Structure formats: structure tokens, C-alpha cells
Amino acid sequence: MVILDVLNLSKTFPTRMGPRRAVQDVTFSIARGEVLAFLGPNGAGKTTTIKMSAGLIRPDAGKVRIGGIDLWQHHDPAVQQMGAVLEGSRNLYWRMTVMENLLYWGAMRGITGKAAKSRAEELLDRVGLGDRARSLVQSLSRGMQQKAALCQALMTSPQVLLLDEPTLGLDYEAAASIKSLVRELAQQGTAILLTTHQLDIAQELSDRIAIIRQGQLVLQGTTSEVLQQYSQPLFAIEGAEPWPLEILERVRGVPGSIQMIDPLTLLFVPEAADMAGIYDLIAALTPHPIARIQRHQADLSEVVQKVLTEGVTA
Amino acid sequence: MRSIVQAEWRRSLILAARYPMETLSSILTMFLVFAGLFYGASYITDSPIGAGRLATIVVGYAVWMTMMSATGDMGWSVQNEAQNGTLEQVMMVPRGAVWVFLVRALMAIVVFLIPLVMVVCAMIALTGVGFVWRLEALEPFLMTLITAWGLGLLVAGIALIFKRIGQVLNIVQFLLLFVIMIPLGHDPGWLWHILAVLLPFTAQVALLRHVLQTTAPVPPSLWLSAGFNMIIWMLTGVMGFIGAERFVRRRGTLGHY
């Protein structure tokens, strides 16, 4: 079931140098329990898109639907179902305590009294900030502030969560904690739109990815399919001992290309990308001891780099 | 809406209590200003000043301070939110930002009026000056306040667009002083009525002066001018703020500072 539906969003900003197209015809959707990693370089249109999805920037064209409700026609019920942690914003009042902030922002969205208090306590315990509820936000570390901001966005148990660079500037432990919370929220059914430059985090958390370049979506698909698509038909074979000459002579007859990277490692590309060719190669290598065979598996940084530099689209 | 009122009331109290020196200093400043008014008026004129005249001075000054506060509160609030990086969260509140800032302004006035009333009462007790507050003045005072909020929403709209409004507020305050001092209240003619309808506060202040200084019935035209002007300025403020909000959402400059 689609929770966040972004349809043909376009935005042009007037600048002193003339109009600048920030986002052009961007369309994507996020289903219940799905994490979409929205990736791209600085200035590609990620933040403009996320802010249009949050109702903070009005698009020139296109629609945003949250739980089937049009954001720009029925603003109040639509934003009620949404929480956001925005990069570059503090999201919280620094002169108030964590608990005061949660109760304040909860009340602004209609959750008050005991319900608000118990929800705030539950969220703070979940992110490990239970003992810092009475601390002023300004006295917390960056990681703790980010966790508190996330709790603020979750006070009303929103169906959609917009996370703009949620792990930016966090240490390993804080980032891991945010990651685990995002995973948990997705499991509970929250649709999550995540922008980040930390591609390992995006790869780990996302079910789907969308890559934006110069305001246009250039790639969109499930993370596993995209990674598979960009993985090359290439094997690295590591011998337990250096490869002897007679074996190297023998493998020349195997269909495909073979390259020796170092005395222990061979790179093998099967002919016509026929992956079954690896069995012919193993037969030719027998009985030399093999330590490891690894098929090339693309990671998100390779995909993004390739898409952005070579303009590959899918 | 009730939850927004509760949240803003709580927030106002929390912030007032969190920095007691700041709160105490503002109360002390208020106390000194009113002490100056109570004692200084007699000293300068070198004669005991009548209770009625003093009431007019004190109430006039209190209204002036309240108006200044009501006019500037929302603008400062927008500027501070933008500076602190919380404006975008406020703009995502379901009820709409105009309600948030109006409720916040209402709470700010309550928090401002409580010490003000306490200080005035303390001064009356200390000086022994007879001071009769006329309940009839409450309506003109509320009309002045609502007009000030209308103007305050316009200033807040300007703050949404330009973010820094310190100088704008200075200009607005001088203009307000000019508007209030227009000496046409004693002889209302056609020019006065035109100005009273168009300019903020002119009609409401004239009404307030009338109620405080005389016991004669208020001319209905004065009530009408003040009421009409209040509605015009509140509507102008709401529309100006919503217009500014739309403008910054279109320009994508909401979170800029």
C-alpha cells in the first residue's frame, strides 16, 4: 500500500542569473514499511524534493499525496500523518529540555496530557535517552540531539517519515543507533524517505533507491536489483599458493578472459557473461588449492558514481 | 486549537522561569519606569498631580507598551525561529502558522501583563495615589490589542520574507507614535473619520482617551470607526501573513536566514 506518492514534481527558482530548474518531473512512491534512499550530489535537488514532500516548498507542478490525501489541497490532515527531521535545522528548542520539547511539539500536533507523556517516555527509552529527558537540548551531544529530533518527529506515530541527512556528523555509535531505529520503524510500517551522502548507510537501510542528478531522476529501483544490475560478470580467484605456470597455460583454453593481478589472484570474465563459465575455470585450475572465489558485487557508491559520472540510466 | 494554547502557555512559562534573571530584570525595568511616571510627573510639574491625570498617564503608557509588544512579538518570534532553525517545524504544524503565532502573541501579552499589573498595583500601594480603573476602558483596550496583533502579523509576514526585522520594527514604532499623536481626537471631522478608518490605533486610542478622560457617552461613530478599523487591520494582517507564507513557500526561502 502506497503511503507517500510524489507525482511529477517540478520546481524552478528565480535567481539573479535567471531561472534555475531545481527539480524536473520527479515521480516516486513509498509503500508502507518501505525505506526509499534518495541519493544524489549536492545541489541535485534532494532537499528541494524532500521539502516539497513536506509542504515547505510549493512545487510549480506536480502533486504530493500522503496516505491518499493531497498535501496542497488538504494541508492539515496530510501533514498530521507526517514527521520530518530536516538537515540544517535544529528541529528543537535548545533552551528547553528534551521532554519539554517532545510535549510541546506533540501538543502542536494534537497529542496532549498523559498520552503525550507516555509516548515521549516510550520514544526516549527506545533511543536510549530516557535518562536525559530533563536535560536541556543545548547540553546534549550532536548524536543525542539528532535522536531527540527523531523522537519529536515520531510523537504522533506518523505514517510517513522524512529524514534529511539523519546521520550527518554523527559518530559510529550514534549513527548505528539511528540506523537501528530507522530499521525498526520501517518494520512497524512507517514509510521512510531518506536522503544521505553516506552510501553505506543508504545501502544498508533502503529497500529502494532513487538517484537524482541536476533535478532529474536518473535511476530508480529496488536496491537489490540495482546492485545486481551494476554488478559485473567478474570473478576474483585467490590461490592458497602462487599460481604455477602450467596451470596458467592450461586456463588459457577456458572461454573468457583471464588476468593475473598478483601471484595469488586471477581475475576471470566469462565469455558472453555466461556465469556458468566459472565451473570450466575451476576444472582447469584443479588440483591447485583455491583459498577464495568471489564474484563482483557492486556497492551503492559504485552505482552512484557510475550513474553520476557516466550518465547511465535505468 | 486548545492543545496549541496549552503548549504555548506552557512554553511561555518554561522560558520565563528558565532564565529568572532575564525575567526579573524586565520586571525591575518596568518598576523603574512606572516609579518615574508616578514620582516624576509631580516633580516636573512642581505640583501634585491629580489622580485622574496620573491614571491617564499610567494607563496610556501601559497601553503604549502593550501595543509595542503586541506589534513586535510575532515578528521577533519569526526571526528567532528562523535564526534557531525551528521555523520549518512550526510551519509544518497542522493548524497553520498564523494560528501558532497568534496564540503565541496572546500568551506573550498575558505573560507581559501579569507583571505589569503587579508593578502598577505595587506603585499604587507605595505612593498611596488613588487610582480608579474604569472597566469601560477594557473594550477599547482589547480593540487596540487586536489591531496591534493585526499589524504584528504584517510585521511577522515581513519577517518571513526578510528574516531580520529590527529596523522595520523601529520604523513601525515611530510611525505608530505619529499615528497616536495625531491631534484630531478633540474635534472629529470628516478628515479624522477617514484617518481613523485607515490608520491603525487612531480610532482605538481616541476611544480609550474618551473613556478614560470623560464620563460622557461615547459617540457611536467613534465605536464604529474603532471596530471597523480593528477588523480591517486584523484581516490585513492575516492576509498579509498568509500571502508572505505563500511567497516564501513558492520561493523556497522559508528555512533561510
Characterization of the model:
Chain B: It comes from Sulfobacillus thermotolerans. Chain B: The chain crosses the membrane at residues 21-42, 54-76, 97-129, 141-161, 222-244. Chain B: This is ABC-2 type transporter domain-containing protein. Chain B: Keywords: Membrane, Transmembrane, Transmembrane helix. Chain B: InterPro entries: Nod_factor_ABC_transporter (IPR051784). The complex is a heterodimer of chains A (314) and B (257). Chain A is of the alpha/beta class. Chain A has two domains: 2-229, P-loop containing nucleotide triphosphate hydrolases (Rossmann fold), CATH 3.40.50; 232-295, Alpha-Beta Plaits. Chain A is built from eleven helices and 14 strands. Chain A has helices spanning 46-53, 75-80, 98-108, 113-126, 142-154, 172-187, 199-205, 223-230, 245-251, 277-285, 300-310; strands at residues 2-15, 18-31, 35-39, 61-66, 69-70, 82-85, 160-164, 191-195, 208-213, 216-222, 235-239, 256-262, 265-270, 290-295. In chain A, helix 3 crosses helix 4 and helix 3 runs parallel beside helix 5. Chain A is elongated, with a radius of gyration of 25 Å. With 257 residues, chain B is mainly α. Chain B has one domain (2-251). Chain B is built from ten helices and no strands. Chain B has helices spanning 2-18, 20-45, 51-84, 87-91, 97-127, 138-162, 166-181, 190-198, 202-213, 220-251. In chain B, helix 8 (190-198) runs parallel beside helix 10 (220-251). Chain B is globular, with a radius of gyration of 19 Å. Chain B starts with a helix and ends in a 6-residue tail after the last helix. The model of chain B has no long low-confidence stretch (mean pLDDT 81). Classes of the chains: A alpha/beta (314), B mainly alpha (257).
Overall pLDDT of chain A:
89
Name the average pLDDT of chain B.
81
Strand order of the largest sheet of chain A: 6-7-8-3-9-10
Helix content of chain A: 25-40%
Number of domains of chain B: 1
Gyration radius from CA atoms of chain B, angstroms? 19 Å
Q: Which CATH top level class of the largest domain in chain A fits?
A: Alpha Beta
- The secondary structure category of chain A is alpha/beta
- Give me the strand/helix succession of chain B: HHHHHHHHHH
Strand elements of chain A, count: 14
Strand content of chain B: under 5%
The main sheet of chain A comes to: 6 strands, mixed
- End-to-end separation of chain B: 29 Å
Helix content, binned percent of chain B? over 70%
Major sheet summary line of chain B: none
Low-confidence stretches of chain A: none
Distance between termini of chain A?
A: 24 Å
Total count of strands of chain B: 0
Order of helices and strands of chain A: EEEHEEHEHHHEHEHEEHEHEEHEH
Strand content of chain A: 25-35%
- Give the overall form of chain B: globular
InterPro entries (chain B): Nod_factor_ABC_transporter (IPR051784)
Keywords (chain B): Membrane, Transmembrane, Transmembrane helix
Transmembrane segments (chain B): 21-42, 54-76, 97-129, 141-161, 222-244
Protein name (chain B): ABC-2 type transporter domain-containing protein
